[in-house]
Amino acid sequence: MKLSFSAFSLPALFAAALTATFHISAAFAQPAAVQEADLDKWIAKNNAYVKLLNETLRANESWNRYTSWVNVERGPTGKERIIYGLYSVSASSAREAIAGARKAADSEPASPALDAAAKELATAFETVFPIMNEAHDYYDRKDYMSDNAAGAKRLHGQLVPASRAFIAARDKMDKLQEEVKDQLDTLELARIEKKDGKQYRWHMKRTMILAKKAVDLMPQNPRQPGNMKEFDAAIAKLADAAREFDAYVRDSGKSNSFDSYPRDIVGRLRELKDKVAKGRADPTFYSMDYNGVVSSYNMMINMARMPMLGR
User: Fold this and answer.
1) What is the b/e burial string over 240-279, where b = at least 16 CB atoms within 10 angstroms of the residue's CB?
2) Could you give the CA distance from residue 228 to residue 236 in angstroms, rounded to a whole number?
């Protein structure tokens, strides 16, 4: 599972000009030479795209919930042993994210491939979430018990093509945005170091970057964990950064509620990895460990957005 979060926008204090020219290329139809003066514009565009990806997570989860109990090829019968229905999606939040992404796609600096992918996802999301919400309400009322699942079959016929198009669009945009995000993180970190050195903000930004990489590599299925070596290496890098951050806090005397989150995430990731590696991860309870890491990570990101007084 790829987690998306907004590029950490730094105050104007860190907007000092750099003489270097950076190149962001992988996700674009043509490489874009980006002057430091354009970095904040890239961040603003990226933030709008991240918001769209974050809002679409709920729809992604809704589709996964639906396919957990429905035979997608046959469709619902209303006689399944367990009928979970679907999750609802906030219509107001969805519309806001869609509008923001479309506006960003038409803004400078242009990124043809990523901008096109954002528009495609916005349209796919705009199509699928009302169907999901209608289906959520249908199953919540248990209408299938009185209409012989006629409504379930009708909704299934709409839901499957719309959801498949949505999932494909989301996967495409996620990959393109991730490539850009990695490069923007590198540029932001360099800007912080050039302006202020490797002080609190630098350590904070660095641990956030490495935490995201490690969290993204968490196995979704403990029985099929995938590349554990890559996951282990990401945890090790995060642990080194967290250790250096802790040392900086002790030596500088600068401390805040953010400080504990990197080491907490490291500990949680190590426990999760150990359970998976030793075959002790019960799928029934694994989601609790998984969601615990995600919750701690999200709290860390929220703490990073708070005012940086005294640092």
Assistant:
1) ebbeebbebbeeeeeebebbbbbbbbbebbeebbebbeee
2) 12
Helix axes 39-67, 150-196, angle to 10 degrees: 150
Number of Cβ within a 10 Å radius of residue 130: 14
The Cα-based distances of 55 to 26, 97, 230, 247 in angstroms read 25, 7, 28, 37
Number of folded domains in the chain? 2
Reading the block at residue 7, the tokens are 């590029």
Same domain, 220 and 162: no
pLDDT at 290 over 70: yes
Which of 9-13, 144-148, 149-153, 171-175 bottoms out in mean pLDDT, i.e. has the lowest? 9-13
150 with 208, same domain: the answer is no
Strands of the chain (E only): list them. 21-24, 32-35
Q: Is residue 145 part of a domain?
A: yes
Task: Report the alpha-carbon angle 195-201-206, nearest 5.
Answer: 105
Q: For residue range 269-281, what is the model confidence (pLDDT) as tens digits?
A: 999 999 999 998 8
Identify whether residues 156 and 213 lie together within a single domain. Answer: no
CB-count burial class (<10 Å; 0-12, 13-18, 19+) for 129:
buried
Q: What is the pLDDT of residues 230-262, one digit of tens each?
A: 999 999 999 999 999 999 999 999 988 899 999
Among 52, 44, 121, 46, residue whose Cα is nearest residue 93: 52
Domain-embedded: residue 4: no
**Is the domain of 126 the same as that of 208?**
no
Tokens matching residue 112: 């043809």
CA atoms within 13 A on the CB side of 280: 8
Q: Which domain holds residue 284?
A: 198-311
**Quick one: what percent of the chain has pLDDT higher than 70?**
86
Is 35's pLDDT higher than 70?
A: no
Q: Give the type of residue at 276.
A: V
Same domain as 152, residue 223:
no
Q: What is the pTM of this model?
A: 0.75
